[in-house]
Specification:
The chain is an alpha+beta fold and about 725 residues long. About 45% of the residues lie in helices and about 25% in strands. It has four domains: about 1-135, PAS domain (Beta-Lactamase, 2-Layer Sandwich), CATH 3.30.450.20; about 155-265, PAS domain (Beta-Lactamase), CATH 3.30.450.20; about 275-450, Alpha-Beta Plaits; about 465-715, EAL domain (TIM Barrel), CATH 3.20.20.450. The strands form five sheets. It has an eight-stranded mixed β-barrel with strand order 18-19-21-22-23-24-25-26.
């Protein structure tokens, strides 16, 4: 077999153009016999360098070539080889061979059939070039092209070419126009006026002028404008164009790029909005309020007008966050912002100061009122405050919970009591604080000739002296069995006598005592006085249950229950005849800690009452686990309860709730016979209020009992 191959090789080798040249080509030269098995006659030495196979092995194993063809190419390449063998046509193919070491080599194989003088097939002469580097380069180029195409197609930009004449005709526009504006390139080209018609009305004149000036000047130009897309969207563009000269040197074409900058513009608008607006409620923020307040004051000074600032501070807002969570608190603030805007005039500004505080600016107010006497600006401010309070009367629905909200409002008016923005804000803040001390849902007008009680050094000094001298007194208000008018106990209420007569209202000094850390000392005196008074009454043959209020600071005192028991027993008073009252808001400030303290108090015999029930945000799930004996219904629900359907429904529900929880309901602030009858008919067991008796000194309670035998009739008269 070897001798036959050598014979054939010697016969056909002269057809190769020089052995030295062949063996230095950057490819594998081969000669195969034109027989049925394509016997290899010659393979150049490069086969070893390119394919890792020695020439001898390659010549001895023709099947080795077929086995080295990459599996993904084998079927195609073998079919092409058979077709060339059958037809005698040149064999031209690109395919992959797998070297023995596993490396893949791309081959470009080109073979032709050589014939003798009579046209008979003699041999196949071919060259296999290693095109791996070329293929890898082509692949990289292809991938780069794909990436470039993807990048270009995804670019939020439209490339265009216009004629630089008055026609403004477009001769080319990139495909992105359809994705961005919903217009096909051909539509855009066919309609020279389409761009102008799509311009936003507010930008049309400016954009057209910029385009024409740039074309006529022959210089690059850029501008920003809005187009209205086919679906109605407003799209912002930054258009950068260059003017290309024609053969005559005059402007010939305008080539431009319209970059979609809508997201950037929206971000800029959002940033500008947030700089002057509250992110939660979208109301103007303090920065915008301050700016508009300064402008309003400038106008007011020029035209002799009034300006009013209302400082709105929610009452007990912290309880919403503590009871229902911060998301519920945020939802409440959003709804509150809507109500404030509904309650104010279109010309008024509602802003969020921060937290649960809001500011109202009433500008350009006439200082004289044709409808009423007094300062017109002050009258308008009071009217707006009234509307705000009425707007808050309806409950807020938050996560399935109905919440009743009140706000304390302070009012300051220019030029009556302040001459500049800082003073207006300070005075309104001070007035709001005074309103909060006066009770939930109040508003107070600041006056320039008033000195706020909390800022009076004399009051602070007097309060310290009163604590040192224990210059207090207790008044007692009867608690009545509503079924028969029988007095079953009293509530002790602290009073501060003034040197010149009269009493300092508790709302004036209790918050200050809390602030100054004096409330614990005052509370200790109250318990001692209750114990002393109980002993005095018992000496007169009178035994009464007594209730008193604990402030939040007192509730958190160390060993509270032990201290109370020690003080009361020292005076001979049984804790079982004492009712300790805490407000609903105090109970819910720290429910877990409160529960622990209440259980300690109850375990030592004290009766417990929740005061002002209905004004806070109690969790009924927590309330049912609290060892509470009495639910005191706040006086706000009792007023006109017999005619107000909403109050009637609320009070009836609280009475039923108390019964279901094994507690007694006690209605506060009963002022009329009709209210008394309504409550008695609804099964409310206990009540107190002016219809029975105002809070009175201890000796009047004793006189009342001696006259009536414990029965109290309307007005405090016994029968």
């Amino acid at each position: 077999m070897t001798s036959d191959r050598n014979h054939l090789l010697e016969e056909h080798l002269p057809e190769l153009t020089g052995t030295a040249l062949v063996e230095h080509l950057p490819g594998i030269v081969y000669v195969d016999a034109a027989d049925d098995v394509q016997t290899n006659l010659y393979t150049s030495p490069q086969v070893e360098a390119i394919l890792g196979v020695p020439p001898e092995r390659w010549r001895s194993d023709r099947e080795g070539w077929a086995s080295m063809v990459h599996p993904d190419d084998r079927e195609r390449v073998l079919a092409e080889s058979r077709r060339a063998q059958e037809t005698g046509e040149p064999f031209v193919s690109e395919y992959r061979l797998v070297r023995p070491d596993g490396r893949i080599v791309w081959i470009r194989d080109h073979a032709v059939l050589m014939r003798d003088d009579r046209g008979r097939p003699r041999c196949w002469q071919g060259v296999m070039f290693d095109v791996t580097d070329l293929k890898e380069t082509e692949q990289r180029l292809h991938e780069a092209e794909q990436r470039y195409r993807a990048l270009v197609e995804d670019l939020p930009a439209i490339v265009y070419v216009d004629l630089a004449d008055e026609s403004m005709a477009t001769i080319f526009v990139s495909p992105q126009i359809e994705r961005i504006l919903g217009v096909t390139p051909q539509e855009y080209i066919d309609d020279p006026d389409l761009w102008a018609r799509m311009l936003h009305p507010d930008d049309r004149e400016r954009a057209l002028q910029t385009y024409v000036r740039g074309r006529e000047a022959g210089r690059p130009f850029s501008y920003e404008y809005r187009l209205i897309a086919r679906d109605g969207r407003v799209v912002w563009f930054r258009d950068s164009a260059v003017v290309l000269p024609g053969s005559d040197g005059r402007p010939g074409l305008i080539q431009g790029v319209m970059l979609d900058i809508t997201e950037r513009k929206e971000a800029e608008e959002q940033a500008a909005f947030l700089a002057y607006h509250d992110s939660l409620t979208e109301l103007p923020n303090k920065a915008m309020f301050d700016d508009l307040l300064e402008r309003a004051l400038a106008r007011a000074r020029r035209h002799d007008l009034g300006v009013a600032v209302l400082y709105v501070d929610l009452d007990n807002f912290k309880l919403v966050n503590d009871s229902l969570g911060h998301e519920a608190g945020d939802a409440l603030l959003v709804q509150l912002a809507d109500r404030l805007q509904e309650a104010t005039r279109e010309t008024d500004l509602v802003a969020r100061q921060g937290g649960d505080e809001f500011l109202l600016l009433l500008a350009d107010l006439e200082r004289s009122s044709p409808l009423a006497e007094g300062d017109g600006a002050t009258i308008v401010a009071g009217s707006v405050a009234d509307r705000v309070q009425r707007a808050l009367e309806a409950p807020f629905l938050i996560d399935g919970h109905e919440l009743y909200v009140t706000a304390s409002i302070g009012i300051s008016v220019f030029p009556n009591d302040a001459q500049d923005a800082a003073s207006l804000l300070k005075n309104a803040d001070t007035a709001a604080y005074r309103a909060k001390r006066a009770g939930p849902g109040a508003y107070v007008l600041h006056r320039a000739d008033e000195q706020d009680a909390l800022t009076k050094l004399s009051l602070s000094t007097r309060l310290r002296k009163a604590v040192e001298q224990r210059a207090w007194m207790l008044h007692y208000q009867p608690i009545v069995d509503l079924a028969d008018g029988r007095m079953v106990g009293v509530e002790a209420l602290i009073r501060w006598p003034e040197p010149g007569g009269g009493l300092v209202p508790p709302g004036e000094f209790i918050p200050l005592a809390e602030e100054m850390g004096l409330i614990e000392a005052i509370g200790d005196w109250v318990v001692e006085e209750i114990s002393r008074q109980d002993a005095s009454w018992r000496d007169e043959g009178l035994t009464l249950d007594v209730g008193f209020n604990l402030s939040p600071r007192q509730l958190w005192q160390e060993d509270l229950a032990e201290r109370l028991v020690t003080t009361l027993r020292a005076g001979g008073m049984d804790p079982s005849r004492v009712t300790v009252e805490i407000t609903e808001s105090t109970a819910m400030t720290d429910p877990d800690r409160t529960l622990e303290i209440l259980r300690d108090l109850h375990g030592r015999g004290f009766r417990l009452a929740i005061d002002d029930f209905g004004t806070g945000y109690s969790s009924l799930a927590r309330l049912r686990h609290m060892p509470v004996d009495v639910l005191k219904i706040d006086r706000a629900f009792i007023r006109e309860v017999h005619t107000d359907r909403q109050s009637a429904s609320m009070v009836s529900a609280i009475i039923a709730l108390a019964q279901n929880l094994g507690m007694q309901a006690l209605a506060e602030g009963i002022e009329t016979l009709e209210e008394w009858r309504f409550l008695a008919d609804r099964g409310c067991p206990l009540g107190q209020g002016y219809v029975f008796s105002r809070p009175v000194p201890a000796h009047e309670i004793l006189a009342l009992v001696r006259r009536s035998g414990m029965r109290v009739l309307p007005g405090g008269l016994a029968g």
